Amino acid sequence: MRFEEASVIGDHLTLINFDICVNLGAGEVQQHALKKPWLNQFIFQPIKARGIDIIHVDVINYDGIDLVLDLTNAEARNSLKCISGRKCYLLCNVLEHISEHLRKQIISSVIEAMEPEDHLVVSVPKHYPYHADPIDSLYRPSAE
């Protein structure tokens, strides 16, 4: 996530009420903190300052991952549903790393797990060079 994007998302998060942040597709949390300190500055530190817990979720058990889930299966949806409180799901700069058929399945899984008072923040790059991690499907949608 770029600096400007983190700033905009961080500003948006101050406007919504939630009890827990679920960072989906978190990746290598500790590496991101070193390489992109603006993620902590604009997003995670302000959330923590509000007394809100953050759960970092990924399909790979990287350092810093709190919950290993494959969002393409029903058990993962149930795991998300078991998280109590008003949730803010972050799905930021993840969808371009997922093939089209799995992308639809993952989005459906998250939406199915959501309660009416939950929030979902989604971002994808519009103009960004190819970046394999582990794949780049070159998904670059327009705002529409």
Properties at a glance:
5 strands, alpha/beta, 17% strand, 144 residues
What is the oligomer described by this structure? single chain
User: What is the number of strand segments?
Assistant: 5
State the major sheet.
5 strands, parallel
Give the helices and strands as they follow along the chain: HEHHEEHEHE
The geometry reads as globular
Q: Over all CA atoms, what is the radius of gyration? A: 14 Å
Count, helices: 5
As a percent range, the share of strand residues is: 15-25%
Question: What distance separates the N and C termini?
Answer: 20 Å
Strand order of the largest sheet: 3-2-1-4-5
Describe the structure in your own words.
This protein is of the alpha/beta class. 37% of the residues lie in helices and 17% in strands. The longest helix has 14 residues, at 100-113. The two termini are 20 Å apart. The model has no long low-confidence stretch (mean pLDDT 87).
List the helices and strands and how they pair.
Elements: H1 3-13, E1 20-24, H2 29-35, H3 37-49, E2 53-58, E3 67-68, H4 74-81, E4 87-92, H5 100-113, E5 119-123
Helix pairs in contact: 1-3, 2-3, 4-5
Give a short synopsis of this structure.
The protein is an alpha/beta fold and 144 residues long. The protein has five helices and five strands.
